[in-house]
Known about the structure:
Chain A is an alpha/beta fold. Chain A has helices spanning 47-57, 77-89, 104-116, 130-136, 174-191, 193-207, 211-231, 246-256, 263-280, 286-298, 311-318, 348-355; strands at residues 2-7, 14-19, 37-43, 62-68, 97-102, 123-127, 141-146, 149-156, 161-165, 324-325, 328-329, 331-336, 339-343. Chain A folds into 2 domains: 2-171, Rossmann fold; 174-355, Up-down Bundle (Dehydroquinate synthase-like, alpha domain), CATH 1.20.1090. The first copy, chain A, is globular and about 60 Å long. The interface between A and B is large, with 37 and 37 residues.
Amino acid sequence: MIEKLQVELGDRTYPIFIGSDILHQSQNFVPYIKSKQVLIVSNVTVAPLYLDNIKSVLTDFQCHEVILPDGEAYKTLEILNLVFDSLLQNRLNRQVTVVALGGGVIGDMAGFAAACYQRGVPFIQVPTTLLSQVDSSVGGKTGVNHALGKNMIGAFYQPQCVVIDTNTLNTLDDRQLSAGIAEVIKYGLINDLEFFVWLENNMQSLLNRNPESLRYAIKASCQNKANVVAEDEKEAGVRALLNLGHTFGHAIETNEGYGTWLHGEAVSIGLLMAAILSYKQGWITEDDKNRVQQCLASANLPYKIPEKMNADDFIKLMSVDKKVKDGVIRLVLMKSIGESFVTSEYDHSLLIETLNGV
Amino acid sequence: MIEKLQVELGDRTYPIFIGSDILHQSQNFVPYIKSKQVLIVSNVTVAPLYLDNIKSVLTDFQCHEVILPDGEAYKTLEILNLVFDSLLQNRLNRQVTVVALGGGVIGDMAGFAAACYQRGVPFIQVPTTLLSQVDSSVGGKTGVNHALGKNMIGAFYQPQCVVIDTNTLNTLDDRQLSAGIAEVIKYGLINDLEFFVWLENNMQSLLNRNPESLRYAIKASCQNKANVVAEDEKEAGVRALLNLGHTFGHAIETNEGYGTWLHGEAVSIGLLMAAILSYKQGWITEDDKNRVQQCLASANLPYKIPEKMNADDFIKLMSVDKKVKDGVIRLVLMKSIGESFVTSEYDHSLLIETLNGV
């Protein structure tokens, strides 16, 4: 069974295919490739597992590949340049289709390379981690990190299609799977109470990689994200909600060095911090705050602030976040589970308390 | 006197102001800046001449600056990163306005940095060379070079406004002025016979930097380019005409190493090559071909192929040009002076003859 969602963006509308064992189905790829030229971008971990699958459905094309090192630490302009080297060394032209095969780092980098190469060539996302399947592969955010801030250099650039094969999650380690679930929980917290309740009741099934449960959770997540992106592609308004937990999480990632925490783990801590501040403000109940914590814990996710970080560290790092406007840090906080909002109208002393973990 | 043109691009429409001594007029800048934060990007040659001018009209803003080395050789990802460093070190946010103060290299790099920083911040073009005033500052092409090809990494990204002060041309050396005139001549050749005739009759006045003549030539050039860009922002069709002379010119620049030839000088040679091939095809008369050569010569521009380049060198370099589609090199050639067209229907042996300079 294959699910198809549509991300509605006018002339940049594109489909997301979700199912198990669908990497072998050429109809998910071939109609979305513009010329004979294809460059597959993958990494040293994923390429040995799935590169041949993809190539076997692209036998009618001239397939080139570039294999990058694995990890957030390599999401840099310098490593990005390896993709440009490959595009140029193979003399690939403006009609080449770039295929991103891997997790969020590969998707973000391959997408950004496609956005910039000759000022824009088509690309296809084949996300192979839960995190990238429910988050980064949907919505067109691409880019690389800078030493002074995460995702600071990039483009909004939409793929031709996204192909999500839940079978690829069978080779994902438990820690990565849980990290992906952090983003799944986020969608429940933002505006889908029903989905959050489903997650409370089905967490073990997700951790066991039940294909039906995975497909349901991925579809619900992608649908939630697609709705928000369709309304606000370039993050002028409602799309900022998707950053629930992320302003805190990015600060943790930057402070600890990329790669120490998985992105989803940092987001998990950030989600609870958002819940704690919302509780301190009197916006959500203690019970709701505890439900958030329990849900994260049931997914084996961390939720405690790293001991060596204090409020000063956070404030410094959060000040370079993209959500900052005229010096004020805007945060995504909660009115209830399933109803989040963007605000700069919070009590600064309660923020400091939250950041100090007290 | 100040001329105002509009580049019509829907919600990305923006004005071009052209006049002498207009860098001092705050109304050309202030309405186009979104927040208090401004980063001026300039180079070591231009900054000492005009940076203070700009800062004097931006006293109400927090003005930061980053000064890059001067020259096409520095139009790289590595140097671009200095702009990102400055943006992040100064903690500039998504509302910062980037001001490009300099020639085409500065405009392309500052524009691309603005396109990528936090996935897009506003920018203003203040071109200070004739080449950038009539070409690169209009139309939203931004980017950097790669060792294997010119302008291979970039974005289509439109400024908030363009401020062209013809007085800045008084500090431009003669060689740079002539290089700019190559692009001016190009507009006449593409689709404006009347303007080409004006250039034949007024070249000395332009070389003497007569302000009226400069304003007329810049306005006519910008208007020609704006019309084409409005019709085809992303170079899906008619915009390719603007590359008249450029496919040859880029090959010369790449072969000789960026910086050996000024861009406009390479384009000048490319324009005559396009005229020669068009003449060999029987599409233009010998008289027209000679008029092209005489016009370039009257502007003190080179028009002979570098001696060490042969057809093989050209073909290799032209094959990575962005105009290549499925291996066929598409060229902009002429039916007459003032009527150019894009074609791959030329006689390959005549192309080889042209490339070999025989």
